[in-house]
Amino acid sequence: MNESVSQDYDIIIVGAGMVGATLACALGQQGFRIGLIEVNEPNFDWPADSVDQRVSAITCASQKIFESIGAWPLMCKQRVSPYRDMRVWDATGSGSVHFDCAQLGEPLLGHIVENRVILFGLHEQLQKLDCVDLITPASVTQLDIELEQARVALDNGQQLTAKLVVAADGSRSKLRELAGIETSGWSYEQHGVVAHITTSKSNQETAWQRFMPDGPLAFLPLSDDNSSIVWSTTPEHADQLLAMDEADFLDELQEAFGDHLGRMLKCGPRAAFPLRMQHAKKYTLPRLALLGDAAHTVHPLAGQGVNLGLADAASLAEVIVDARQQRQDFGAHRILRRYERWRKGENLAMLSTMDGFKRLFGSTQPLMKWLRNTGLHLTNSTSPLKNMIMRQAMGMEGDLSRLAKGQTLNEEQ
């Protein structure tokens, strides 16, 4: 990437996280001049024996997006962990379901990848692109949308212009706020506790999830045969879990999860983050588009949050490239509305489904308990239904972008 920073770009992307960096790679490889603004300077110097507290369940569709932009092999050189099975059960009943990739004739269901490994692969690709400038540390302080361009002011005094500005700056998006776009949503009154866990038994390349009244507890398989956990629970309980010494925490984790992976032997550093559902009332304005967490946040119980954002990035890239090929103004609202119509319905459907699951499995009412256990039993015994759910979870259903199909942005549909 260039040392000097131009003042004028084709596209400015605010946020160089997983979603923003994916869009920058996809468009930079098509020759667009990109200004990529990030508040925190990326740091990829980590101890060899450490594991990131935050991991993502990467679907087959998201893997294809990464493959299409050349980032996936770089991630594989670091560490990616395939999972081939998923086991889900209700702590307050007998209902359970087992998803197995072999039933679909697929080699795996997806991968668990540390967030920093994903970022490493994407930023390695970005460094090869002379048309992408990474501007960091910097944040946007002002947004002005004009007829033929948008202008942003940065806290370092720079003024940048572009035909299009993209907000990929997270659920508390400053750019979304500056644009005056409202959101709807609510807090789940839950925190997700994350940690790296060593167990006495192999993780069996299986993602495990136990639904409890306070929230789900997930064990996600890592390549060292250990697991990354996401324990969704009340804020008060989360605080208690963070305050415990390691032995007490492992005892409580053992009691909550059972002995499916043997004994809980060791725990890495713990952290917690609040969970909420949020959806932007608009994804686009003239010269502006929101994607990823800036547009929507979802409960992590199915691990779909980052995959929705990556699908946003791939779809927006396709809309922009198609518009340029047709000599259209890719920053015009009528063009950006194609992206909004494409993604908003699918995102809303996933948000609603995850919200419904959270409420169904969090209820202690006898009728709801009967419904969810009956539903789990029915799903497990009905192959067509189970296969449909698996294909959906793998990102193989819906209106897929060319990148998510493993194609290039220039290929004809």
List the helices and strands and how they pair.
Blueprint: E1 8-14, H1 18-28, E2 34-37, E3 55-58, H2 60-68, H3 72-78, E4 80-83, E5 85-90, E6 96-100, E7 110-114, H4 115-126, E8 132-135, E9 140-145, E10 150-154, E11 159-167, H5 174-179, E12 183-199, E13 206-212, E14 215-221, E15 227-233, H6 235-243, H7 246-257, E16 264-267, E17 271-280, E18 284-285, E19 288-290, E20 296-297, H8 305-325, H9 333-362, H10 366-381, H11 383-393
Parallel strand pairs: 1-2, 1-11, 2-8, 5-13, 11-19
Antiparallel strand pairs: 3-7, 4-7, 5-6, 9-10, 10-11, 12-15, 12-16, 12-17, 13-14, 14-15, 17-20, 18-19
Helix pairs in contact: 1-4, 1-8, 3-4, 8-9
Description:
- This protein is an alpha+beta fold and about 425 residues long.
- It is about 35% helix and about 30% strand.
- The chain has a domain at about 10-80 and about 115-185 and about 275-365: FAD/NAD(P)-binding domain (3-Layer(bba) Sandwich), CATH 3.50.50.60.
- The protein has helices at about 20-30, 60-70, 70-80, 115-125, 175-180, 235-245, 245-255, 305-325, 335-360, 365-380, 385-395, and strands spanning about 10-15, 35, 55-60, 80-85, 85-90, 95-100, 110-115, 130-135, 140-145, 150-155, 160-165, 185-200, 205-210, 215-220, 225-235, 265, 270-280, 285, 290, 295.
- A hairpin with a 2-residue loop joins β18 (about 285) and β19 (about 290).
- α1 (about 20-30) runs parallel beside α4 (about 115-125), α3 crosses α4 (about 115-125) and α8 packs antiparallel against α9 (about 335-360).
- The chain is globular, with a radius of gyration of 21 Å.
- The two termini are about 30 Å apart.
